[in-house]
């Protein structure tokens, strides 16, 4: 009952029926272009932090259908043998472009683009969205939480509340991308080379006859990094005084790395009183870690109130992004290809906001020339050469159409080619290198765009060529159907 | 970059440090009892539907530490060789009791109890909570959604918005336990023998020159189960008329299973108008499936407004329980065992609501004698023989202490022993058998307890013996620490 050693079947049935349908109804080599993008930012933010690319590419490279997978599909009595044979010999032949993990990315911008046979690219929709939606969601939440922590280290402590094992594992990685410094999750530590951390649970304290016995036993075993949970019985009357006794003994034995963790009660007043007690007892360097259902609002409020905190352990609110637990990324056909020519496609809709952008595209971040100050993004057709002056149009179809004269800018493309058939064209950096890259990217955005509450909208434009193409496709459809 | 073939490392670091600590500070055979329970019901419901037991037991049976796991743990420079050797030879020796999957279970009731060596049972905390919290959360959400659907079939369509691959896979299984009839997730279909379903995406329509071309191509390939997505361009002016043309052709060729799917717009009016058009065209049996960000509130409202719906596809709101995405199940020490004697343990807390129940316990559902009408639950010590008349006490420590005279009842235990060492004592029924069991259990509860909004609280009591034990432990702690 494992997820399986590849995600080939972790796919909606209709991807298979469509893929088989494309094989029969169209030329098997009929190609197309799909974009992955999203429309709504979780938590009313203005952008997300892209994450999940590494796993996504590994899954595509590794994708194959085992004999038992084929047998199962055959048993559904939906598919013909030609299609099942195709699956048996499956390997990726698509070209894939994507923005690097850690990139701040705005609504409607293609964070991944897949170009290849329709019947093949269609099969990627479900698991690519599953992976990218999840990890991008958690990286974005971690960015919010670590921003609220204002430089204090945030540790990811959510494994027990994550939505299943892979949510815990890949969520921990995404949390680091978004700014966390460590995880409690040992598997994530091993797989992604992330520092692991943690103290003790209440069960440790309760297993002994008294709190001081439990603390002393711990100190004997882990004298060089003695962090004690002080809220099992009574924080100020028992936990902190007993911790201080333990630290005094350890100090006498030459040890010096001490800390306490508070997991309940009024953190502001408790942490301030605990700080005072520790300082007065001669332990100004003893660290106070807190960890009670924290999120960005609570952290911000605690710091504002003067809580004395050295580190934060954040669990369920981070690992599930519980205030906004869904990133609704979509996988939309942008073009089909016939005889080498791209035929642009869009999804019309009763909801104007769902209008898509046709064609094979690139997204550029625009900087004031000679600076690292980004002031807008621009979505263009991939083969456009950007002129020096652009009469750009707002990308949001819900906004009143506005033209904007862009000039004196430097345009840096965000998507790069990451896979060509079975060939990986990118190597995934260490997860802390991704975090560092992400922080650099964020530093280039206006502060107002990064605000937690009511962020300023960062302008995203499309080129006049892309706008004209979109309008032409709309007219054509509304005449034709 | 897989979750791995077992979850031994998907555990918080502190479980390992505590386990190693128990080995060194206490007798390696020192035993204890842990309970898994929760305090808050998601979505302000009154109970949850237990799920995840099958995966939980498989993980425990399968639990082992590979050489590279041991090497990683050694590299942390925290653990001694005695502990690493213990892990290398790890196998379960605990006794485990649990309520069957599908059981409606109330706050504070132990849904799983683990008795065994502390250093072993401590290692299970994180992954057991991860699995049980997740699957119980989704089964409970599915129960709410399928109840709102009032008998209409609900299909789980959420794979792309699930929080990672295992969330999609096990979430689909949990959705069936909670009442869904099918999933779009092919891997879940294969692994759990669940019917898979689905129609087509907009990309199918867009890949052809016109909607009618796309419909006709589909009908040629899948004539015996022709369900068409009608909202790519304009539902009433294009989608439904084109679908009817397609059905007319198929009908002429002797086919008879038709349907449409609506995925956007005002479902109430669109479905009613579509129904009328289909009926007037001679297709009263054509099914209307809807699928646009549905949840229990929207479904209830649509049905109240007279929307014409034959089936529902529910995605992100089900697979993430997005309105309430965390079940905060906990793993608490209830006793330690010395020389065969149980020493009861509790967690005191500044928050009175977090007070736990000590001892090795059983939970009973109480029925009016001679009926299948449950009227209360009762938590007792496992070795208590329930008398005919019980002066029970309310289990909720936040409630004003109330005594209640219970008599004329039949008490049915909810927990059964499910594992003894490496021996499984239960076989997992087919997932639809679990669903059926769950429905039977629900039928025995008062309707008012199952309401979606403001459900009536179902009474949960503890026996006077358990109450006395809890009070005794409290006094002892408050004197001692």
From TrEMBL, chains A, B:
The keyword Nucleotide-binding does not apply. Residues 361-469 form the Nicotinate phosphoribosyltransferase C-terminal domain. Keywords: Glycosyltransferase, Ligase, Phosphoprotein, Pyridine nucleotide biosynthesis, Transferase. Transiently phosphorylated on a His residue during the reaction cycle. Phosphorylation strongly increases the affinity for substrates and increases the rate of nicotinate D-ribonucleotide production. Dephosphorylation regenerates the low-affinity form of the enzyme, leading to product release. GO terms for cellular component: cytosol. It comes from the Bacteria. Gene3D superfamilies: Aldolase class I (3.20.20.70), nicotinate phosphoribosyltransferase (3.20.140.10). It catalyses: 5-phospho-alpha-D-ribose 1-diphosphate + nicotinate + ATP + H2O = nicotinate beta-D-ribonucleotide + ADP + phosphate + diphosphate. GO terms for biological process: NAD+ biosynthetic process via the salvage pathway. One of its GO terms (molecular function) is nicotinate phosphoribosyltransferase activity. Residues 9-133 form the Nicotinate phosphoribosyltransferase N-terminal domain. Its EC number is 6.3.4.21. Pfam families: NAPRTase, NAPRTase_C, NAPRTase_N. Pathway: Cofactor biosynthesis; NAD(+) biosynthesis; nicotinate D-ribonucleotide from nicotinate: step 1/1. Belongs to the NAPRTase family. NCBIfam families: NAPRTase_put (TIGR01513), PRK09243.1-2 (NF006695), PRK12484.1 (NF009131). This is Nicotinate phosphoribosyltransferase. The lineage of its organism: Bacteria, Bacillati, Bacillota, Bacilli, Lactobacillales.
